[in-house]
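User: Design a sequence. Structure:
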């Protein structure tokens, strides 16, 4: 099994884990979009030739999303009702975590490509 197939299986299992973990309690369609768009981006990137050329690009894009989902977003969303009562910015926080995770992933890929360009220039 090659790396791309393994990556696709991992992202599908991660989406399944997030879906089961949330218990499909997301009743607002907007919330569902914010939960699954970064995960679908992770899955979709594996089909793009730019990302398939280098394995590290996929890893750099997916790592912040997985890390922020596991340690920041997922615990926050499981306590969403409590946080919504106690915070006036709970919806804003909910939107920001997945968006920043996606930006971090894209930023890491850009920095990686800049580093490769600099390394080639000096080589």
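Assistant: Done.
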């Amino acid at each position: 099994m090659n790396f791309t197939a393994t990556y696709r299986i991992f992202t599908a299992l991660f989406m399944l884990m997030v879906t089961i973990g949330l218990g499909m309690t997301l009743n607002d369609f907007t919330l569902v979009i914010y939960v699954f768009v970064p995960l679908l981006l992770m899955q979709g990137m594996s089909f793009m030739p730019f990302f398939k050329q280098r394995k590290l690009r996929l890893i750099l894009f997916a790592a912040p999303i997985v890390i922020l989902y596991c340690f920041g977003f997922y615990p926050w969303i499981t306590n969403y009702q409590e946080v919504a009562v106690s915070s006036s910015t709970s919806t804003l926080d909910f939107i920001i975590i997945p968006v920043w995770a996606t930006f971090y992933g894209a930023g890491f890929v850009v920095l990686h490509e800049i580093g490769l360009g600099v390394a080639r220039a000096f080589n």
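Helices lie at 3-22, 29-45, 49-53, 55-78, 80-86, 90-122. The mean pLDDT is 79.
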